[in-house]
Structures are given as structure tokens and as C-alpha cells.
Amino acid sequence: SVVWTTTVAVFFVEMGDKTQVATAALGARFQDVLLVAAGTTVGMMLANAPVVLVGEAAAGRLPLKLIRGLAAGAFALIGLWILIFG
């Protein structure tokens, strides 16, 4: 399902970032992994939920085909820049 696909994708993308390092450190310090994990999850949801809601509202109003084309062009230019000057 979409939920599990997103969950797994975010897990792999976020592995090793500051949030996971902080969660591990806090879990070790306070000896309560479940409460620390719950707090981290709630904090991430509070930080991300507004962005998701605004993005969903904007997606219906923005020309996504144009945005995808511009993003692809920008990535291609960055890639060429790195190949030539990197």
C-alpha cells in the first residue's frame, strides 16, 4: 500500500540522520526506548504534517509537468557541472 511504501522509503532515506542519532542517544540515556521513539515520532509528525498538507493543496494548483521538466533540467545541469568541474 502507499502507507507502507512511504514508510519504508522514508526509513531508508532517513537512516543515519541526526534524528536517529538523537533518538538512539536519548533512548540510551533515559532507558525508555518506547517513550523516546514515541516522542521522536510525534515531533517528526508535527514538523512534517503542515508541509504535507500545504504540498497537497499546492499540487492541485501548480503545473506539475512543467515543474518536473524544470527539475529534471536542473538535475541534468548540476550533473554536467559536476562531471566537467568536479
What percent of the residues sit in helical stretches (DSSP H or I)? over 70%
* Weakly predicted, low-confidence segments: none
Percentage beta strand: under 5%
Structural class: mainly alpha
Biggest pleated-sheet summary? none
Gross morphology is flat
The total of helices stands at 4
The helix/strand order is HHHH
What is the arithmetic mean of pLDDT? 88
CA radius of gyration is 18 Å
Descriptive overview:
This protein has 86 residues and is mainly α. Helix content is 87%, strand content 0%. The protein contains 4 helices and no strands. It has helices at residues 2-14, 18-30, 33-59, 64-85. Helix 2 (18-30) packs antiparallel against helix 3 (33-59).
Provide a quick synopsis of the model.
This protein has 86 residues and is mainly α. It contains 4 helices and no strands.
Can you tag this structure with a few keywords?
single chain, 86 residues, mainly alpha, 4 helices
Helix/strand layout:
Blueprint: H1 2-14, H2 18-30, H3 33-59, H4 64-85
Helix pairs in contact: 2-3
